[in-house]
Each structure stands twice: as C-alpha cells, then as structure tokens.
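Hey, resending since the last one bounced:
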Amino acid sequence: MILLLDLDDTLITNRIDTFLSIYLKSLGRYFADSINPDRLIKELLSATRAMVENNRADRTLEEAFDEQFYPALGRTKAEMRPALDDFYATVYPQLKGIISPRPEARQLVEAAMKRGYRLVIATNPLFPRTAILQRLAWGGLPVESYPFEIVTSYEAFHFAKPNPAYYTEIIAQLGCPNEPAIMVGNDLESDIKPAELAGMATFWLTDKASQAEPIRPTALQGSMGDLLDWIERGDPTPLVNEFSTIEALKINLLATPAGLASLARRFAPEQWIRRPAPGEWCLTEIICHLRDVDREVNLPRLEKFKAEENPFFAGVITDPWATERNYIQQDGMAALRDFTIARQHNLDILNQLPGPDWNRSSRHAIFGPTPLKELVSFIARHDRNHLQQAYRLLKP
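The structure tokens again:
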C-alpha cells in the first residue's frame, strides 16, 4: 500500500493564506536593502504561477521558476542564491509559530509504518526542499525519524497541484509499483479531484457534517480518526486505481518522461551503463529503447491512425535494437531529451483526437482489431514495465 499524504492542513495545521502572507513579507524585508519588496513579491508570485502552469516534462518546477524570476529582477541565480540559502536557514525558521502539529497525524503515520506502507509527502511542490522539510519537522514529523520515500519539492518535480500529472509523476518516481496507492488530502480541488482524474484512489479529509460534493463513488472520505481506523482495520475497503480512462492514459503518458528524468538523477554517471546481469539492460539502454519505440513505432502508428480509417499496423520486434544499435554506447541524457520530445509529439496527436475517435479501430498484426484506446493502453503499459525496470536498477 502507498499513502500519498498532503501536508498543510492535513498532517499539520497551517492557515496557508496567513502563512504565505507572513512568508512573503519576511522575504521582502530580508532583501529590502537591494530589491524593492513590492517588486520582489510581484515577481515571486509571477514565477510561482509559471510553476503551477508548467506542463513540460523536460523542465522541472525549479527551472520554470528560475526562467521567470531572476531575469525579471535583473539578477542571476548565482548572485541571489547565497542570500536565499541564508534566508531559509535563519529567517524562515521564525515562521515555526504559525504551524501547529497534529498528534493524530503522527499517529496516522506511525500506524501506516507498522503496516509497512510506503509513505509519500505529497505537498504542493512550489517550495525548495528545505522549506518543506522544516514544516514537516515543525509538525513533529522530521524526515530523520519517519521513512518518507518521497517529499515532493520544486527541485525534483515537473508538475504541481492541481495538475493531475503531479500524481502520476509520484507513481513514476516510485517505479510504478503494482500495489494500490491512495491520495489523502483536505482540499477537494487540489488533492482529490485531480488525483481521481489521474486514476488514483482517494481519501478526502472532511467534516462528515459538511455537504460533500459529488466525487468518484469508490472514493473514501471522513475525519483523520476515520482514516486511522481504516488503516488499523487493515484496509477492508478495496482500493481501485483506474488508469484506463482517456484522461488518465494521457496523463500517465505525459508523466513518464518526467518521472524517468527524476529517477535518472539518482544514478551516478557510471551506473547509467551498468547492467544488473548479463543480457539485462542498463539505464541508458532502457531510455534509448523508449525513445526509439516512441519515434519509430508509436508516432507513425498514431499519425496513420489520424489519417486513415481502420489502418493496419504490422508487428515490430524492437528488443534486438538494443544490440543492433549499440545502445550502451549512446548518450543516455541525449536519449532522454529525445524521448521527451517524441512523447510530446505523440501527445499532441492524441490531444487532437476527439473522444469518439478513441473507439475507432485499427488492425494490428498481432492483436487483431484494436481500438485507439487499447493501443494507447499498450503504450502506457510498456512505459510502466520499463519504469519498473529502471527503478529496480537502483536497488543494491
């Protein structure tokens, strides 16, 4: 079981509007001698919007922020970085008083740990990692004491809430495990609805007395105590992760190169070409394979599907390409960039096709009559298999 846990007003009590107001004023005062506070805050908010709107799998949120923020101020990141680091080390900790721990949240995390659940802090990744780790510590959940596999932050993520691809990127970074995952959060619009759109099970933390808006029938909702009871009972309610809707398929295809890029950052240069066993692929070979399949198999098929009625697709055996094309000697980072570009081309075609076209059929040499939706599900399953393969390479 994987628990994705929102942070603010889920694991900790944090009136986010109050917190952000004091945070921005503190940042403005810190830089007041060199930058007009109003201008600094204006450009910071503008750069934050750029992160929220980012939909590019080849650009992290930090990169989206940097492209907007520093040029607007006429500064370089290298010039401002030492002062920003000092702000988060010396001034940001003074915001601790705004945060209140939630003892029931710590009970929840500890109960999940006892059951061996994998835990992710799925907070909106619009802050540097240090800012999020500090808030966790203020809430009594320091990462030194609790085994969170991922704490989402702007350095390592490409999408932010409420983009549904944020949730599929988390799953991709976890290596697309076969076990069920559930998103837990208090915000219907940022935590629950987009996670459901991505195909994920959800638990909406809400007052039972409130009027609940319609959400997926399989979703769970209730108080923190209800969630704790659910965990301690051993998950009697079956979870449903449904990744086969049209939207979920497209969202998963978008998140694959982003998740793969984040996984790849965890590999040392020499690990990119290290095969786990004779005959098995290294990371560079996996990425080259994904690139060539997207460019030379998936893209031509989608273009043909768009142009023809009931097109015929020949079977293509692609595994031998790893040896024939000597993938291990290629540039893995360049291959990752090219895969990301090819994937976007595929998504551009899919986004142009109306819903009814997803039920139109093609003739596949191996699978016979195959609707577009099934063809795309093959691509998503292929992605998942190779993300799992890449993730296994990280294990000793």
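The chain has a mean pLDDT of 92.

Sorry for the duplicate.
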